[in-house]
Amino acid sequence: MNELSDLMKLDRPSLIKKASELKAEFVRMKFESSLSAMEKPHKFKNLKKKIAQCLTVYNSKAGK
């Protein structure tokens, strides 16, 4: 199933929790990349995109 449609099904607290988990993973990846070369640097872009999607869905549910 589409990841964005999965995010739309979550409630607001779950979206914040998922976004904070993704941010923690991003920080961990940044730390690991500073120690050694990353094999797949494109994962940074994908992770930032997922964080932005979570926050966009969260903000769209604020008006409802």
Task: Give a description of the structure.
- It is a single chain.
- The protein has one domain (11-60).
- Helix content is 78%, strand content 0%.
- It has 3 helices and no strands.
- The protein is elongated and about 45 Å long.
Described by the principal axes of the CA atoms, the overall outline is: elongated
With helices defined by DSSP (H or I, 4 residues minimum), what is the helix count? 3
Count of β-strands = 0
Question: What's the SSE pattern?
Answer: HHH
Low-pLDDT sequence parts: none
Q: What share of the residues does DSSP label as strand, in percent?
A: under 5%
The overall pLDDT, averaged over residues, is 90
**Separation of termini?**
24 Å
Global structural class: mainly alpha
Number of domains as seen in the coordinates: 1
What is the gyration radius calculated from CA atoms?
13 Å
Helix content estimate: over 70%
- Main sheet? none
